Amino acid sequence: MPAPFPARAFLGTMGLVCVAIAATFAVDEFLEKLERRESRAGAARLFDQGRGLLARGENSQAIERIEDALALERGNRGYRQTLAQAQLAAGKTADAEAAATDLLETDPTDGLASLIMARALEKEGRYTEAISYYHRAVYGQWHTDAAANQLHARLDLIDLLAARNSKEELLAELLPIQDRPPQELRDKARLGRLFLQAGAPPRAAVLFRAALRDQPEDAGAYAGLGEAEFAQSQYRTAQRDFAAALRLDANNQ
User: Fold this and answer.
1) 113 near 141, Cβ under 8 Å?
2) Which of 72, 112, 62, 69 is nearest to 92 (CA)?
């Protein structure tokens, strides 16, 4: 009859087996983390290349690089947003709309996704839907430069309303930005013309005067001011400002 296996030897063997198993798991986990880190680094490199191509207007190549980055890191929301921007820039409005839809399904407050959707819908001539998504972009969540991005979204909406000559809606969107800090409203003369179009000549005159303080030789601002004053029956001052515009731009018929 064989001698019984000593308990101490058995426990020692089991201990070695457990240590070996634990070491194997640790090595596997380490290798998996290393692979994920390398994958993220590779995705980041591809994404940076895509973003650089997008900045240079090479939109088709940008899409390819960003798609390659997403193949390595599918859950990266920033990559998906930039892909939608690249698709829109490349004129692939259906693809951009689909990408924006996916983003908004997981986060309906995504300001950038709403803006991409609005621009895609505008390009497709779906103006009522585009206006709705521009509003969502204006009041949506932005992870960086929220105030500046919301302002840009509102200015895009203003351009659309101006092109469609929607006076009441245009004025409603212009009013919230008229008192923004001067550095945010670089083209005050342009805003003045928009207020004129919206049927608010007194507010337009304020902006044209502000524009002339920044650029006293701006013939267009003098002409705009003249129009705003003429609309308010201030004929003498309108004549004076039209004359100033003519001195600065003598060939303007």
Assistant:
1) no
2) 62
Length of the chain: 253
- pLDDT band at residue 182 using 50, 70 and 90 as cut-offs: low
* Site of tokens 């689909």: 98
- Long-range CB pairs of 53-61, under 8 A, 24+ apart, other chains included: 54/82, 54/85, 54/86, 54/89, 57/89, 59/86, 59/89, 59/90, 60/90
Note whether 162 and 197 are within 8 A (CB): yes
Domains of the chain and CATH, by start: 177-253 (1.25.40.10)
What is the spatial distance between Cα 62 and Cα 48, in angstroms, rounded to a whole number? 10
Q: Give tens-digit pLDDT for 203-224.
A: 999 999 989 998 999 999 999 9
Rounded to an integer, what distance in angstroms lies between the CA atom of residue 125 and that of residue 217? Answer: 39
Joined together, the tokens standing for residue 118 give 């609005």
